[in-house]
Amino acid sequence: MILTVGGIKGGTGKTTIATNLTIWLASQGADVLLVDADEQESASDFTAWRDETTDGQAGYTLVQLNGATVRRQVEQLRPKYDHIIIDTGGRDTASQRAALFASDAYLIPFAPRSYEIWTLSKVLSLLDEIQGTRASPLRVYSFLNKADARGVDNSDATSVLLESEGLNLIDFPIVNRKAFASAASKGLSVFEMTPADEKATTEAERLFTYIMQTQI
Ligand SMILES: Nc1ncnc2c1ncn2[C@@H]1O[C@H](COP(=O)(O)OP(=O)(O)O)[C@@H](O)[C@H]1O
Ligand SMILES: [Mg+2]
Question: Which end of the chain is more exposed for a tag (fewer CB within 10 A), N or C?
Answer without folding.
Answer: C
